[in-house]
Amino acid sequence: MKEKKILVTQPVLPALDDFIPMLEEIWDSKWLTNNGKFHQEFEKGLAEYLGVPYVSLFSNGTLALVTALQCLRITGEVITTPYSFVATTHSLRWNNIKPVFCDIEPDYLNLDPDKIEALITPRTTAIMPVHVYGNPCYLKRIEEIADNYGLKVIYDAAHAFGVKQDGESILNYGDLSILSFHATKVFNTIEGGAIISHDAKTKKRIDNLKNFGFVDETTVVAPGINAKMNELQAAYGTLQLKTIDDSIQKRKEIAHIYSQQLNIIEGLSFLEEIEGVVHNYAYYPIFIDKDKYGMTRDEVYEKLKKNNIFARRYFYPLISQFPSYKGLESAKKGRLPVAERVADEVICLPIYPDLGKEELGRIIECLKK
Ligand SMILES: *Cc1c(COP(=O)(O)O)cnc(C)c1O
C-alpha cells in the first residue's frame, strides 16, 4: 500500500466558524473591495504585528513588486539575484528594466555584497535583493553600497514575514520591502501581498498606484494598475494574524527535529540559525554533496518522490537560466559560480505547521537511506 502523499507545504486556514460571521457582515454591507472596513483593519493589524510604520495591501506579491518599482521610478539597470522565484526578475522586465544578475554569498545564499559594486554602471538605479528562505541579507553592507552610489534598494521579502534581526523587523531596511501572502507562504491570504514603506507620502503614492492612479473621484495622477486586495481576503487575513505565532512555533519545532536528525548524515548539510535573528522557518532547504552522500540531488529528489514525498528544488533552475533571461551577459555560465553550484545541490524538504511526527519520521528515514 502506498503511503500518504506529503507535499512540500500545506496552507494554514482560519477556523471556518470565525470566518462565517465576517462573511455575513460583508454580505450585509455589500462593500467588497476599495479600502473597506476589513482592509483598513488588516493593514493596521499587520503593521502592528510586523513592527513597521506603513503597510499597503496588494492582490499578490508580484504586483506589489511591479508597483514598488513604479513608485520609486526605477529605470535602466537593477542588480538582483538569480537565486529566487522568477517573479523577482519578472517584475523588472514588466517595468522595462534590465536585470543584472549578481552572484550569491555561500553562507545564506543572498546577494553577495562583495560582488555588487563591480556590476554598477551609469545606468544602474537600484538593487533588488531577496531575503531567500527568510534569512536576512547583509543589510548594513547593502545599505552602505546603495548610499555610496545613490541607488535605491527594494527588498523582495516574500519569504521574510515576521523575521527580525536584533529585535527589529528586517522590513524596515531599504527604501521599500514587498511581502507575498500566497497560499504557499508562511502567512497566507489565499493570494495577496504588501508593500512596506517608511513614510506617509510614499504609502499614499503606493495606494494611488495600486488603484489606477486615482487620488480622488476625478483625478488620475499616474498610469496605475489594479492591484487591490478585496474584503474577503482582508477579513481572512485578520484571522490569520491570530494564529501566525503558533504556526511559526510549530515550524520551528519541525526545523529543529530536521536539524538534529540530519546532522549525523554524511553528505547532507543545511543552513544554521543566525544569532540575533528571529526566524520564520518558511523553508527547510538541504544541500546534497553527491560524492559524500553517494547520490545526486536529482536522485534524492526522485527517491523521495517514489516514497510519495514531494520535496521541491527551490531554486532550480536559476532565474538566469530561463529563456527570457539566459541571453543576458550577466547570466552567462560561469558568471554566477555559487548560485550555479547551490542550484544543483538544493532540495527543500516539506515543512508546515500540521506536518505530523510520523510523516516527519518517514522523510528522515528516506534520507538516512
Ligand atoms: C512567492 C514569491 C513572489 C511572488 O509572490 P506572489 O504573491 O505569488 O505573486 C515573489 N518573490 C518571491 C521570492 C517569492 O517567493
UniProtKB/TrEMBL annotation:
Active site, UniProt feature: 185 (proton acceptor)
Biological processes, Gene Ontology terms: polysaccharide biosynthetic process
Keyword Disulfide bond: no
Protein name stated in the entry: DegT/DnrJ/EryC1/StrS family aminotransferase
Family from the record: Belongs to the DegT/DnrJ/EryC1 family.
Pfam family, any one: DegT_DnrJ_EryC1
Keyword Transferase tagged: yes
PTM sites of type N6-(pyridoxal phosphate)lysine: 185
Keyword set, alphabetical order: Aminotransferase, Pyridoxal phosphate, Transferase
GO molecular function: pyridoxal phosphate binding; transaminase activity
InterPro entries assigned: DegT/StrS_aminotransferase, PyrdxlP-dep_Trfase, PyrdxlP-dep_Trfase_major, PyrdxlP-dep_Trfase_small
